[in-house]
Design brief:
Elements: H1 9-23, E1 30-31, E2 34-35, H2 36-96, H3 105-136, E3 144-146, H4 148-158, H5 160-165, E4 169-174, E5 181-183, H6 185-201, E6 208-215, E7 224-231, H7 252-255, H8 265-275, E8 279-285, E9 289-297
Parallel strand pairs: 4-6
Antiparallel strand pairs: 1-2, 3-5, 6-7, 7-9, 8-9
Helix pairs in contact: 1-2, 2-3, 3-8, 4-6, 6-8
Length: 306
């Protein structure tokens, strides 16, 4: 039977130091031109750094496991919350539209408040769900013939109440010859949902939002989907523009205003666009507005399972 014994790393280090320096008691500090004490110091430093590196690696592994557990919990909780919140939203919209009876002014006011709070919670839950999936690598791609313009129109219908409430002028410019593209409609929807809702949210009352979707006409290269969403909103301060796609970022100028947001939307959009093999950029000027440009490959997309 073998007996395994393991010394604590600090005890091992102390013992090593004692043995090395003890050995120098029997030899002169310099033997054959070799500085024994110097060699001992180097050995101690090497042993210390090796042990420290091992400890740091073990700590990193533990932290990664903790982060993964937290992300999985957020993913599960967000998934369970999304369905009842979405159901509530549908019923509130039915009430506000008068489908189940006419509302008086006071009833409509209360329902508007409930609807606004509900939409805020739905947006937060969706954002947490998307971030969790991205961090776990759980965003599969399932390409199918997709009409991106139809998706954009659906997204606009979903936020029509917010557009009307803020009296936003919405301009839509779509290529007349735009055909179906083999891509993942679910991921395209997330991109458009975040960009369009952000444009409306961060544009003051009676502002303007423009959405353009087309195909590149560069015959020398593979066709690309071109999406741009511009607004006449608050804009992004020049000194903070490098942070736009970082997680939880919200510009200082919108924090001062009563504008809801999670700071996760553009982080999600950039991650998905890059996963699809595309690119995203923007131009912005504070108090004048922002335009986001998305370029996506229009070629055949491969299905990816997670």
């Amino acid at each position: 039977m073998k007996i395994h014994t393991t010394l604590p790393w600090n005890a091992f280090l102390v013992l090593t130091v004692i043995l090395i320096f003890g050995a120098t008691m029997f030899y002169r500090p310099r033997t054959y031109g070799i500085d024994i004490l110097g060699v001992c110091a180097i050995l101690v430093a090497l042993i210390s750094s090796t042990v420290l590196a091992r400890k740091l690696k073990e700590a990193d592994v533990k932290l990664d496991a903790i982060d993964k557990a937290k992300t999985e919990f957020v993913l599960l909780a967000s998934h369970q919350l999304r369905t009842p919140l979405s159901t509530m939203s549908w019923y509130i919209e039915m009430l506000l539209s008068g489908d189940v009876g006419k509302l008086d002014k006071e009833q409509k006011k209360y329902l508007d408040e409930i609807y606004t709070s509900n939409r805020r919670m739905v947006a937060l839950v969706n954002a947490l769900l998307h971030v969790s999936r991205l961090e776990l690598g759980a965003f599969a791609t399932d390409p199918a013939p997709t009409n991106i313009i139809d998706i954009a129109k659906t997204v606009i219908r979903e936020i029509r109440l917010m557009i009307e409430k803020k009296e936003i002028t919405l301009k839509e410019q779509y290529a007349a010859d735009f055909l179906q593209i083999n891509t993942d409609s679910k991921l395209i929807r997330i991109i458009l949902q975040n960009l369009i809702s952000n444009a409306v949210r961060y544009t003051p009352k009676k502002g303007k939002v423009t959405i353009e979707i087309s195909l590149s006409d560069d015959k020398a290269h593979a066709p690309k989907i071109l999406i741009s969403v511009s607004d006449t909103g608050y804009g992004i301060p020049k000194g903070q523009q490098r942070q736009v796609f970082t997680k939880l970022f919200r510009a200082d100028n919108v924090k001062e205003k009563d504008v809801e947001g999670t700071g996760l939307g553009l982080y999600i959009v950039k991650s998905i666009v890059e996963q699809l093999g595309g690119a995203i950029r923007f131009e912005s000027e504070e108090n004048k507005g922002t335009t986001f440009y998305v370029t996506l490959p229009a070629g055949e997309m491969k299905k990816v399972k997670m």
